[in-house]
Amino acid sequence: MPSERQPTGAATRDDHTEITVVGADRTGIVAGVTGLLFERDANVEDIEQTVRDGVFRMTLHADVAPDSDGPATDAEREELRAALAVLGDDLGVDVRVRFPDERDEGVAVLVTKEDHCLRALLDADLSAEIRVVVGNHDDLEAIADEHGVPFYDVGDDSGKPDEDRLLDLLDEYDVDLVLLARYMRILSPDVVFRYAGRIVNVHPSLLPAFPGAQAYRQAVEAGVRVAGVTAHYVTTDLDQGPILTQRAFEVPPEATVEDVRARGQPLEADALVAAARAHLAGDTAVRRGNVAVSGDHEFGALAGD
Amino acid sequence: MPSERQPTGAATRDDHTEITVVGADRTGIVAGVTGLLFERDANVEDIEQTVRDGVFRMTLHADVAPDSDGPATDAEREELRAALAVLGDDLGVDVRVRFPDERDEGVAVLVTKEDHCLRALLDADLSAEIRVVVGNHDDLEAIADEHGVPFYDVGDDSGKPDEDRLLDLLDEYDVDLVLLARYMRILSPDVVFRYAGRIVNVHPSLLPAFPGAQAYRQAVEAGVRVAGVTAHYVTTDLDQGPILTQRAFEVPPEATVEDVRARGQPLEADALVAAARAHLAGDTAVRRGNVAVSGDHEFGALAGD
Amino acid sequence: MPSERQPTGAATRDDHTEITVVGADRTGIVAGVTGLLFERDANVEDIEQTVRDGVFRMTLHADVAPDSDGPATDAEREELRAALAVLGDDLGVDVRVRFPDERDEGVAVLVTKEDHCLRALLDADLSAEIRVVVGNHDDLEAIADEHGVPFYDVGDDSGKPDEDRLLDLLDEYDVDLVLLARYMRILSPDVVFRYAGRIVNVHPSLLPAFPGAQAYRQAVEAGVRVAGVTAHYVTTDLDQGPILTQRAFEVPPEATVEDVRARGQPLEADALVAAARAHLAGDTAVRRGNVAVSGDHEFGALAGD
Amino acid sequence: MPSERQPTGAATRDDHTEITVVGADRTGIVAGVTGLLFERDANVEDIEQTVRDGVFRMTLHADVAPDSDGPATDAEREELRAALAVLGDDLGVDVRVRFPDERDEGVAVLVTKEDHCLRALLDADLSAEIRVVVGNHDDLEAIADEHGVPFYDVGDDSGKPDEDRLLDLLDEYDVDLVLLARYMRILSPDVVFRYAGRIVNVHPSLLPAFPGAQAYRQAVEAGVRVAGVTAHYVTTDLDQGPILTQRAFEVPPEATVEDVRARGQPLEADALVAAARAHLAGDTAVRRGNVAVSGDHEFGALAGD
Q1: Which residue positions in chain A have pLDDT lower than 70?
Q2: Where does the ACT domain lie (chains A, B, C, D) (predicted)?
């Protein structure tokens, strides 16, 4: 029986089961998870560990049915999931399992007040459903309503988001991909580690130039003649995650910050939509901080007049 | 009698006499030069001082004939030049004077081994004469010879340049603009301070991204989808001088460092020639680290397929 | 008549009149001020210009009575001050003049909530009077009251300070030296430029290591075995101003952030008091970003058990 | 039978077998090594992977005889070592195994021209033997000779070291700890990865301040009042490895670079010897970039007059 799990070949990790552990840093986590897998004859293909602000993450990729022609059976999956849940309880950490063919089920869009990227995503013909829009302000609720997508405001009066509420919503809507559509807050490691490689942000500069706030202003003050925007996977290093797509445009002499923003904003939406499409098609794979890409997507582009 | 010195208006400093002092940092320099100017009824418009690696530079812009309709007379100029020379001797510093209509007389091109930028400059129809080519290796001597331009190799066996020799050559050929055509050495403050705002380099990245060595490699390793090149004025801060021109191009998936270099090199030449033209036309003015530009030049461009 | 103004010799600028211009960056400022001085036969000894966040500052040091044996007369001073005020009005900038023997008249202490540095300053036998304590919270009002020093809270509910009010208070109390005694806000260029070289901060690290917030935490997380504190002049580059005094102490194995803070806080007060004393004695002079010191002060020290 | 492997308790990794893989980055390495270990009932306790300049390193800590009261038998060790060697050959990578009680067998000292640290190490009463001194110049050969320790010069005429030769020597002399006694070259990842956590350098500053070349000069130019030295484990991030010991000293006003160097050099030797002792006693353990220490060693110290 031929496997249908591997549409894009060995270049991606989509044929592996991904196990993510997030919690307090303590000994025994690696031994516990790898031991449990080996007892089930799984092969451990890769392990990554990170600590940030006291939060530990381990991401492990495994082939859980190496001797079989096909994917693990439902019973095998249930048993593994249950065993990992018990282990997680013992160790006091959060363990998640994603089997290869369970991915890309739902999309969440995170927003603040700017609407152009949200509108573009809702109008785009994506291969996955946008199930929920979450803001740290309620300004864009009407736009979500128009498209029949549930909207939640998780921010307090000053816009400070309640990330526990956010995580609950991502669970509740079975979200597999999170798109930051000009979401103007920094996600904590608690969120980033749980959705590693599955959060895409759009930043208004040609990264690695001009990370951080007010990127268009930075570009104008630096006197650049070419500016641009970047869609990238989010890591705990702000604006330094692996690059998916970029769009460049010319900065005319005398251009103001507002002029540059006006050129850039439509391209932000364009870059984010293209990045989402490439991810959802399974045509992107992160390895050692870069994205290996395939398929017919517009990863880089120059925006002529 | 109307002055013909000011084609581009108040936006540039081209209507001012520029006095540059380079040497050891000591007290008395500012007082000496400003005092000498005021005795001659000149107005001091601006003073900048910098120290780097123990070398002091003061650049002063003055209106030396503020009550006259036209420029200073030849006799006035000679007298001022002589007085400043005496002062410089007293203080043990090097003093240079450039009157507004004396500029842009000659061009020097500095090279190492790559020939594409040198060829483009020699073939371009610049408004000023390329009077000398100076290398820290002798690889490109034949190309200069073909074009009837004198070539000097100021490097030792390892390519280490003799900068005193370089400064002598720039004096001997009455050079006003220095173009770094893939010159792979860092100029010391001794040279940079004497030709502040008159040295243009081309760097193989979209600065401020990827300063330093191996910029194409850096870009590929960072996984960018858009790369480019930059021509900029040289300061003592490596690859951070004011930007003149930039060219961007798309980086296809799977592109190697060699692929990116092949796309970039013709654009390096293009950016450097355009920057030289804008400078020679007097259409560029540096203020607070940025270049104010005017005129019909291609400052930014996107290189489509 | 011999001048008594110059106890420390040519190494300091205390024998020069200092003219500070703060305002919007525009042409004509340098020409205006230097011209006005030369008409009065003053010598311009040094000029520094800076722009930050759109605020321009020029600091000019001049000898305003170079041909006289003594300082400028009261009448000459009044005339110069009045002429500069007129010029400032014309140019729309704020001009301040400090004659050499007018300095070090009064001290302001800026505070937030930590009291150890304020207490140490109020108990120290300084050569100048602490005339006012200004906070961005009112927590320390009682301490100022105990010592009979006026206290003002210029912060709003969130502690955001009203810097216009602060500048008015510094004027009203004729303040010449501002001591930041764990003032937890960043002063804007509007304040820093007006009191350049006359604001001293204490930072809880051995600068240049660990600038920015939570320096003790940074040190513990970096695993250093020696930590310390630094008193320095404040510039618009956060925690990078010229160093006055430093105190080092050992970090025992297993030390927590609280342990390190407990070791460091008494030294913060000690470093700040020593820095204030050296400044008030005229034994410090800033040149090119460093402090030249003289006199019998404890500039560096190691805190044994 | 009680194990004697664990003198310092769970805080260190000294009770684990360490497997280091260095080579080209490729898939299959993690799966291969972990699979091989699990077949032998070993527990994988920790895995770290790094890539630098195209060189891949995986360091894995395992408990290879978890069900036994004592260490693995000689036969078990031989079998595991042989199996890993076969796997390494298959994957084209270099695999090394260190069993817990095989450590700290021999010391190498790397030098250039400065002799004070080498002399101090040779005179110190270390718990392990200095088996070889390796220089990138031959200046210190006589000192090694005096102490009856073999000396090898692996540098060419310009001092460029032959690192393959260096690695051969470290193997030949069965070196477990490498001390950089003012060795003025940057070790490549090829060396650093093979001796991760077993190379100690001494740097002439209080890191993280003043990394890189000419640290004493940097300190003087920054105007610090307290300077110092640091011994640290070497990683591929220059001068950023985990800190072992530090020594601080006061910088008097007017101190020159030479003055500071004269104060610092005896402390360099002192810091390096103390760091070596703590490492050899098994009282240091690296975790997440910091060193956890125990035992009675002088990790931090202030050098009074």
Answers
A1: 1-14, 69-71, 102-104, 304-305
A2: 18-98
- What are the DSSP calls for chain D, one per residue? ----S-TTGGGSSTTSEEEEEEEE--TTHHHHHHHHHHHTTPEEEEEEEEEETTEEEEEEEEES-TTSSSPPPHHHHHHHHHHHHHHHHHHT-EEEEE-GGG-S-EEEEEESS--HHHHHHHHS--SSEEEEEEESSSTTHHHHHHTT--EEE-B-TT--B-HHHHHHHHHHTT--EEEESS--SPPPHHHHHHTTT-EEEEESSSTTSS-SS-HHHHHHHHT-SEEEEEEEE--SSTT-SPEEEEEEEE--TT--HHHHHHHHHHHHHHHHHHHHHHHHTT-EEEETTEEEE-SS---EEE---
CATH superfamily of D9-102: ACT domain (3.30.70.260)
Q: Is B209 strand, coil or helix?
A: coil
DSSP assignments along C154-216, one per residue? -B-TT--B-HHHHHHHHHHTT--EEEESS--SPPPHHHHHHTTT-EEEEESSSTTSS-SS-HH
Average pLDDT (C10-30) is 76
Architecture of domain A14-102: 2-Layer Sandwich (3.30)
Query: What confidence category does residue D5 fall into, taking pLDDT thresholds of 50, 70 and 90?
Result: very low
Could you state, in order of their start, the residue ranges of all structural domains in chain C?
A: 9-102, 106-302
This prediction's pTM: 0.83
Name every chain C residue with its beta carbon within 8 A of the beta carbon of D246: 224-226
Write the CATH number of the domain with boundaries A106-302: 3.40.50.170
Give me the pLDDT at residue C2, please: 32
Top-confidence residue, A9 or D117: D117
Percent pLDDT > 70 in chain C is 92
Among chain B, residues having any CB pair with chain A shorter than 8 Å are 206-210, 221-226, 228, 242-253, 289-291, 293-294, 299-304
Contacts of B26 in chain C (CB under 8 A): none
pLDDT tens, position by position, C252-296: 988 999 999 999 999 999 999 999 999 998 889 887 778 888 888
pLDDT tens-digit profile of C95-133? Answer: 999 888 765 579 999 999 999 999 999 999 899 999 999
Which candidate from B10, B44, B49 shows the least CB-CB separation from C30?
Answer: B44
